[in-house]
C-alpha cells in the first residue's frame, strides 16, 4: 500500500475519532461530569489506530513534511487525551473543560494538516 492510500485511510479513522471527540465534548459541556466510558475507549482506539497507520506510512513509505507536523500535533493531543483519561475519567472525576479545549485544538490542527497532505 502506498503512503497516499495509508494517509487517506488514517484521515478517515481520524475523522471518525473527531466525531467521537465532538460527542464527548457536547456531553461534557452540556453538564455531565464525563462521557460514557465506551465512547472514550472507542475514541482512543480510533485515534491510536490512525496515529499508528500514519507512523507506518511515514517511516515505511514517506510522508510530506506537513503531514509530519500534523502527526506531531496529533501525538501531543494524544498525550493530552491519555492525561484526561488517567487523571480524571478513570478516577470518576469531572473532566476539566479547559484541557478538553486544548486537546481539541491540537487534534483539529493536526487533523487538518494530515487531511490537506493526504488529499492534495
From TrEMBL:
Keywords: Membrane, Transmembrane, Transmembrane helix. It comes from the Bacteria. The chain crosses the membrane at residues 38-59, 66-88, 100-119. The keyword Transmembrane applies. This is Uncharacterized protein. It comes from Caenimonas terrae.
Amino acid at each position: 500500500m502506498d503512503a497516499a492510500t495509508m494517509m487517506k485511510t488514517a484521515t478517515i479513522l481520524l475523522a471518525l475519532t473527531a466525531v467521537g471527540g465532538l460527542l464527548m465534548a457536547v456531553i461534557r459541556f452540556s453538564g455531565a461530569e464525563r462521557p460514557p466510558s465506551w465512547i472514550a475507549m472507542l475514541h482512543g482506539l480510533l485515534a491510536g489506530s490512525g496515529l499508528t497507520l500514519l507512523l507506518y506510512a511515514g517511516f515505511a513509505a514517506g510522508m510530506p513534511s506537513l503531514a509530519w507536523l500534523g502527526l506531531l500535533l496529533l501525538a501531543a493531543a494524544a498525550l493530552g487525551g491519555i492525561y484526561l483519561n488517567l487523571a480524571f475519567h478513570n478516577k470518576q472525576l469531572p473532566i476539566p473543560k479547559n484541557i478538553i479545549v486544548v486537546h481539541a485544538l491540537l487534534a483539529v490542527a493536526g487533523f487538518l494538516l494530515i487531511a490537506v497532505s493526504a488529499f492534495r
